[in-house]
Specification:
Blueprint: H1 3-13, E1 23-26, H2 30-40, E2 48-51, H3 54-62, E3 67-68, E4 76-81, E5 85-86, E6 92-93, H4 100-108, E7 110-118, E8 131-135, H5 140-149, E9 153-156, E10 167-172, H6 179-187, E11 192-195, E12 197-198, E13 205-210, E14 213-217
Parallel strand pairs: 1-2, 1-4, 2-3, 4-7, 7-13
Antiparallel strand pairs: 5-6, 6-12, 8-10, 8-11, 9-10, 13-14
Helix pairs in contact: 1-2
Amino acid sequence: MTQDEMKKAAGWAALKYVEKGSIVGVGTGSTVNHFIDALGTMKDEIKGAVSSSIASTERLQALGIEVFDCNDVFKLDIYVDGADEINAQRDMIKGGGAALTREKIVAAISDKFICIVDDTKAVDVLGQFPLPVEVIPMARSYIARELVKLGGDPVYREGVITDNGNVILDVHNMQITDPKALEDKINALPGVVTVGLFAHRGADVVITGTPEGAKISE
Ligand code: 5RP
């Protein structure tokens, strides 16, 4: 099975958590794209979606799924999204697709975070995947220096502007043994919009695409 086939297995398996008549929180990325395709088969049975990126919004709308403004929705039952890394405690690194800020917002209004990944994303310690940090452009150099003090090697993601008009620093060479503490420290730096550590709001359900099919851990 290819990695994309494992992503597809995870994305389609998430469909069983979608309640009829509901508004669904939808993340961003290649795994979520499979979930969106699956959701298209239920488009007449759901009310719509709240999306975490322009890319996902376009894909949802192309399938005829209504996309609601996050401000018009009080709460969501489920949020379905991928991850770049996930540990056994269900803390995640996210933001490989630069959508981390909106992802964190939609996750925050959702009762249940359903993480869909292929089996290459499971790690013992977070940090092999460079940790994305979305920053206000004028704070980029200052925050890079602060991230070095925290033990990382930040690299400016050239040519990428987020949906919110900001830039991304990818922090290499971090061994993230206390994800919540690091999330707090980076969040406290002036100019940081969002750090791609999802530890305070981790996943509730993990669906892993494997060569044997989708495995669900609740
Ligand atoms: C985007 C994300 C994605 O969920 C993460 O990058 C995983 O992507 P993919 O499903 O393409 O492997 O956080 O900002």
